[in-house]
Amino acid sequence: MEREFSAGGAVIRYAEGRWWLAVIEPQSSAEKQIRQKKPVLALPKGLVDHGERPAQAAMREVREETGVEAQLIRKLKDIRYVYVRSWGDGQRVFKIVSFYLLLYRAGEIDQISPEMRIEVRQARWLALQEAPRTLTHQGEREVAQLALDYVIARPELQSSPNR
Fold first, then answer.
1. CB count in 10 Å sphere of residue 119
2. DSSP, res 159
3. Per the confidence metrics, is the pTM higher than 0.85?
4. Which residues are CB-neighbours of 38 under 8 A, at least 6 positions away?
């Protein structure tokens, strides 16, 4: 079985008296949205490039898919699963996605390159408190809960610069 390694980010930002999480609606969600009657909401993530560390890949993917720059806080969780490629060879793939907690530093959400619009329909802020029940994929809901638990335990983060 082939293996894939990806990395993603749970980017948090404190604004308007609450914590927010950067999420994306992938372009591939159009068909799923019709079936589910609601958009697919996910965390930004992608393959780790050759010579790149997972944390670097997470920050790169966040920048490419959301338009925001973020600072690494810590690793949150690895998600492991098997999927069948829906393109090309239809092969089964064992995938590991390492998710990192990132703190927003700069940039405008959804200001992404035209090339990224092939992958990302929209990037937006979602209230972090809603994310553990709103994100589409179970593993990513768990990541959001870990991010929420982290900020609840550290109220001093609310006064961090560049929120």
1. 15
2. G
3. yes
4. none
Spatial CA neighbour of 19 closest among 156, 162, 148, 112: 148
Please, are residues 78 and 67 in contact by the beta-carbon 8 Å criterion? no
Domains and CATH numbers, the chain: 2-118+131-159 (3.90.79.10)
CB atoms within 10 A of CB 12: 26
For residues 154 and 90, give the distance between their C-alpha atoms in angstroms, rounded to a whole number: 45
Kind and range of the H or E element at 30?
helix 29-36
Closest CA to 143 of 57, 79, 62, 51: 79
The pLDDT tens digits of the residues spanning 63-112 come to 999 999 999 999 999 999 999 988 778 899 999 999 999 999 999 999 99
Contact between 102 and 70 under an 8 Å Cβ cutoff? The reply is yes
